[in-house]
Amino acid sequence: MYDHIELAIDGSECSMRAARRALGLALLKPGMKIDLVNVVSAENEIDALYSPEVFDEVENGSVLAPAMQLFEGSGAVTRAVLLHGAPADCIARYAREN
Predict the structure, then answer these.
(1) Which of 19, 26, 28, 40 has its CA 20 to 30 A from that of 3?
(2) How far, CA to CA in Å, does 35 sit from each of 4, 24, 50, 52, 54?
(3) pLDDT above 90: percentage of residues in the chain
(4) Model-level pTM?
């Protein structure tokens, strides 16, 4: 059984479906660590300069909020992680380091 899951969240229905699957695993093992990872790419950072909606999403972590709410009360140790850079590289580096 897993002790630690890194889950990339981008706000899509597919990422939320993966979060629900991870929740099922977390319910089987109380205390499981779940890192919810979102990566802000350079394009999104540029968009944030011009779009108040994108800026708000980046600043307040609203992309991660639905997944964080999903895990409330599950017994999992959940952490929201916001990274900056190329998504694939950031996610792979985070997985290696954590």
Answers:
(1) 40
(2) 8, 15, 30, 27, 22
(3) 58
(4) 0.81
